[in-house]
Backbone:
């Protein structure tokens, strides 16, 4: 998992060098190198990742999402969640964390990170497999966090 996360971080910085400031300035961040999403009518997404603060891995995270509405097909993407401050990071670690329906992800492309900002202490970015732009619907995602200890 650590190698996959490291590769996903490099991929984000390669796609948009402005992503470097997000990794450097956030209180912490979760990286999901491979989120699979798909459905016909009812859909879902699932991915595994790591929660990182500075150069230290804090724990493992599982992402799940169930969606209802028109949808057909599938997508694989990397997801990055940045926490503005220690409070937002600790809220995530407590395990009662869900991205609200109003939260949207920014597709990582050259320069995209420059206009992005935090919403309620959190910012979310995605990169579709192969680096293609993908506007992921991330509202309703739930996270299960486990400390490494």
Residues:
């Amino acid at each position: 998992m650590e190698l996959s996360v490291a590769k996903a971080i490099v991929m984000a910085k390669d796609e948009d060098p402005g992503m470097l400031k997000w990794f450097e300035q956030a209180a912490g961040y979760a990286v999901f190198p491979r989120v699979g999403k798909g459905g016909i009518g009812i859909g879902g997404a699932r991915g595994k990742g790591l929660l990182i603060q500075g150069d230290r891995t804090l724990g493992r995270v599982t992402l799940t999402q169930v969606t209802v509405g028109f949808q057909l097909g599938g997508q694989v993407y990397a997801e990055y969640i940045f926490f503005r401050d220690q409070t937002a990071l600790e809220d995530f670690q407590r395990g009662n964390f869900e991205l609200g329906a109003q939260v949207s992800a920014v597709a990582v492309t050259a320069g995209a990170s420059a206009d992005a900002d935090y919403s309620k202490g959190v910012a979310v970015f995605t990169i579709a497999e192969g680096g293609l732009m993908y506007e992921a619907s991330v509202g309703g995602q739930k996270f299960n966090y486990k400390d490494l200890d």
About this structure: The longest strand covers residues 56-83. The chain has three helices and five strands. The chain has a mean pLDDT of 86. Residues 2-147 form one domain.
